[in-house]
Input
Amino acid sequence: MASAISSEPVHHIALTLSDQLPALQVLIPFVAAPLVVFFGVRSLAWPIAFLASLGSLAVSVLLLQSVIDGSEISYHMGGWAPPLGIEYRVDTANAFVLFLISAISSVVLAYARGSLKAEVPEKSHTLFYALYLLCLTGLLGVVITGDAFNVFVFLEISSLSTYVLVAQGSYRDKRALTASYNYLIMGTIGATFFVIGIGFLYMATGTLNMADLAERISEQRDSRTIRAAFAFIVVGIGLKAAIYPLHLWLPNAYVYAPSPVSAFLAGTATKMAIYVLLRFMFTVFQPEFLVEIKILEAVIIPFALIAMFAASISAFYQRDIKRMLAHSSVAQLGYMLLGIGSFSHTGLTATIIHLFNHGISKAALFMGAGCFVFAIGATSYDKLKGLGKSMPWTSAAMVIGGMSLIGIPGTAGFVSKWILVQAAFENGWWSFAFLIVLSSIIAVAYVWRMIETLYLSAPIQGMTAKEAPLSMLIPLYLMAFSTIYFGFATDITLEASKAAATGLLSGSSGLR
Amino acid sequence: MFEEMTVDFILGHLNYWFFIILMMTGLYVVIAKGNLVKKIVGLNIFQTSVFMLYISIGKVEGGTAPIFPMDMKIDPEMLYSNPLPHVLILTAIVVGIATTSLGLALIIRIREEYHTIEEHEIAEQETKVSFYELNGNQLTSGDNS
Output
């Protein structure tokens, strides 16, 4: 590449490693994925994958440190300057999400080593880790890129590997195959809608760089092409994010996927999609645009409220722990949408901090569910009766995760719900604040059903369940304790979320 | 709005009409057909319609193909079509192929397990399995309590 443009003087060449961090963030797992396959030795697959994941975690920590004060890093891929070249743009919002994704990925990978043995035959492990890394690459790429079409490419890298990862559950239950197929159909429709939207934007503006798009869209907000593009993008990303009426693929995919995949997806995939939604709504189409087309009142808030209640109630009626957790994920996405809908600095802070807090809580809970699969091969309430005695550690971690799901003070879930209620008060939405509390009471009910099954039911006779091995319990507790840690030490998450919200709302008069 | 619907308007936007008709056909096939392979076919039509939209918007009236002449003497006056949408869609075609092949591979695995690729027959089998799961479990728990 460099030789092709060597006739012109080269003004900048980033030589130090720290300047290359945005590229390394995506490249480490991307290069490690084929390496896992090339070495082909099963014993090397996991160490390579784990090191790569830790590497991108380290990079994301460094990135977050350098942008937490609200500054931005703009990285020009291959030295081609934007808007022509692809730009990686790191600000507080996406550095925070990058940190969430790579942290959950690393902990889940540590856990996967033990858990996979019970769920996937040995011969598939090498390819499993390769796909896992590709999925991680896609998720990180979507979040870090500043180019609208690049978002689509990375979205499909992560989605395609996710479909295969979900289908790996077929060794345990053949329904994983149909779950994966349905996810593929819905996901592809979503991604294609997103591409149509990007195409319309390109027609109207002639650019694909997000910052450039924002500038040109603000000049022609009345254009019907721009509005159609917005509709396509929101529906397309809504399918990936499992926003309430578009969530039908989610429960089956989470239930039948192997446990490490469920934990990884629940903690990261929908969060990534919510981030893309935020990025497009607030950075590409500015807040003024959202006010003009009244999307918040007409779409986001009603569906957020329906999700909070309908999905919580259906979570209560499930007879399987994983299915209950999947439905509760849809409900919790409702809170994030309500934060967007409140359209204030506090509301966006609530969305971003809930994205993080719910990500770690749900990952912990799904890892706990995976320990049950490891021990007894099932997650239905009927089989889990009385396991609190024979599997005390796993059950205790499930209780911690469940408390965070409800939002009991002292857990991470409380912090985000508290800020969400504050945002509702700020807008004078007393009834919404009441509804948030009311839906949390339904969460108490479905978490209580889990606790009742584990601790208060008589164990099934002849059931000999052994506690999960330490290699699974340590990552599980790392995640469970971090939900408590981030419930008390709120300064890191709160500071990052506030800076992220400021960044998303900056440069606009839409701030109320 | 309907005054705008002249013949010129319709003919002038011919590529969009094709795009919309193909897109709706594809989406309809995905939703309406119960055969898993036919769904993939529908998905392909749907994706291809979007490729056509992208390719057609790259056309500049009177423009030629965006290729450098052999002698590299570039005439700055020359009009050429916008190559960027074509490049973008090259990527999207690759994604489409990957999706199709993955979908078909999944169908093969589904057929091995379910011995059918009709959606309603698969749903029937799945209902049976979950019914057995629930009742089987109730029986065992009933025995114990």
Q: What stands out?
A: The interface with chain A takes residues 23, 27, 30, 36, 39, 43, 46-47, 50, 53-54, 57, 84-85, 88, 91-92, 95, 98-99, 102-103, 106-107, 109-110, 113-114, 122, 126, 129, 133-134, 137-138, 140-141, 144-145 of chain B (CB under 8 Å).
